Amino acid sequence: MAAWFGSKDKKASSVLEIERRRFWMEGDDMIVDMSTPFVDHVEEGEDMVINMGPQHPSTHGVLRLELVCDGEIVKKCTPHIGYLHRCFEKHAENLPYPEVIPFCDRMDYMASMNQDLAYCVAVEKLLKPKLPERVEYIRVICCELNRIASHLVALGTFGQDSGAVTPFLWCFRDREKILDLFEWLSGARMLYNYIWIGGVARDLPDGWTEKCTKFLDYFEPKLENLDQLLSFNKIFIERTATVGVVNAEDAIALGLTGPNLRATGMKWDLRRDDRYSIYDRFDFDIPVGSGQHGPLGSCWERYYVRVLECHESIKIIRQAIAGLPQGDVMEAVPKRVKLPKGETYVRTESPKGELGFYIVSDGGHGGEPYRCKGRSPCFSQVSAMDHLCRGVFVADVIMILGSLDVVLGEIDR
Amino acid sequence: MKGYFKDMYEAGRSLSIGLALTARHLFQKTVTMQYPDEKWDLPPMAKGQLHNVVEDCIGCDQCAKVCPVDCITIETIKAPADMDLGKTSTGNPKRLVLLRFDIDMAKCCYCALCTVPCPTECLVMTNSYENSVYDRKDLIYHYAEFSPTQSKRMKVEVEGKLAAEAEAKKKALEAKKAAAAAAPASAAPAPAPKPADGETKE
Predict the structure, then answer these.
(1) B-chain residues within 8 Å CB-CB of A229?
(2) What's the complex ipTM?
(3) CB contact, 8 Å: B6 with chain A?
(4) Dihedrals φ, ψ of B76, to 5°?
(5) Where are the domains of chain B?
(6) Where are the beta strands (DSSP E) in B50-173?
(7) pLDDT in tens, A307-360
(8) Does B14 touch chain A (CB under 8 A)?
């Protein structure tokens, strides 16, 4: 075995020997999948390895979950990622700062505006342009609209995972209206490239704010409908309120952020606690898990925190539209972005959680970042799968994954 | 036992609320659009197929430089002096022969960054979006006025002309130098460089 690996070191060969024994069990009665040597469980009796994904419709993208099951009970869950890797970080090192934004769009394609905002806020922290007030307000409006759109997808697909198809269709119907607004604004439905460094791509079209207000008026009762149809449905509550429970301490240790952390009762929102952009000017609550239908931090709590966040986003958008000042949105957009030498890390509250960008600039050649690292909230969430899935039924794995609301484009980048 | 019946009651109640809601939706206007038969209106800024109005293109290569995915390929050559390429509709003189202007729509990420620096605003995103083709090669759109063979011929022709021009220029320069060298000897510097000057200007 050692010779096969080309190792001449005696110590190393003994380690390999142990490894070999672990995966190639003595006796031929064990079937072990050699293609997945990451599993460190010890096989006993009737254990079975099930690969859920990467083409499974409930894995929300190309995620492969390797489940070690004892009958119907999951003993271990190992997520395998990387099927959607597109070298975002390496690409960013070879592109000027403004050209990275289309790649940021494609990280979390459910909430492109929030990704763009995070990147632009990070670059602006080094560049220090004097942003016009109007730009800040437009950015907040766009990001909150996109937060609603992203949450609608999360709520709808979570409902569908649990067997409710109608809420899924209704959520997508309402999301379509948000995408129409964005299409009018930026020209694209999902990948906007709208928030630029030092500004936004173009001003709001005439009548956009009126249409946006009209949408909010239309949308608020629809959220009530969603509550009636799905949130307080007894069957749905029974299915989700006791599944995938995580307490606040574990959630922090696992690196859960965003709605998943707030569902455990932690009142932590970077919009309030970090005060990036102009979020300190708006009056909004931070919804946290209430524990009204079971323990805190369950799938239902995670779901319901998102519903409540939609209400809060509506509040913020209404305030932002009311206070929208006049001004030139392209005023502070630099013709050529040249950052001084330095490094920065900015974290923002994306719909999925804490999204951060770490940018190192060496201040020179061609205006490209020396390093551009994205901190993805979904990566931590999918890493928590093992903790959440031990001892649950196979069917519950789908509910837990759906309630965590991961998007694989952001994990693999 | 009491909890059992309470749960059943709760389930029935919440289900009937949801069912009543869906039943009400039966009598509402449908939101589904029968797509190929009816289409929605796109806003004027919609980012669809990338299109180059080649009559206005001056071949400045700025769009290709700014493209994050390098989907625009431009090949130009300097126009010789006797070739008049005219002006664009915005009044900019064209100084480069556009041998090749290819847009690979398979690579394009529809970010519209290329339309921003275009000085003549000839590169635009149209709102046509039904652009699927059967062959991947068909996604490469050629916008130059010449076919690949024509452009090859054109390149050779223009290169020859440019070489001839350069030679003429060199000769003129030499003549000028010679004249300048001869000038102090002959003590008549003024008339000698004049014809040479005229040649270079052409």
Answers:
(1) 17-18, 21-22
(2) 0.74
(3) no
(4) -130, 165
(5) 50-151
(6) 50-52, 72-78, 96-104, 123-125, 140-142
(7) 999 999 999 999 999 988 888 888 878 888 888 888 889 999 999 989 999 998
(8) yes
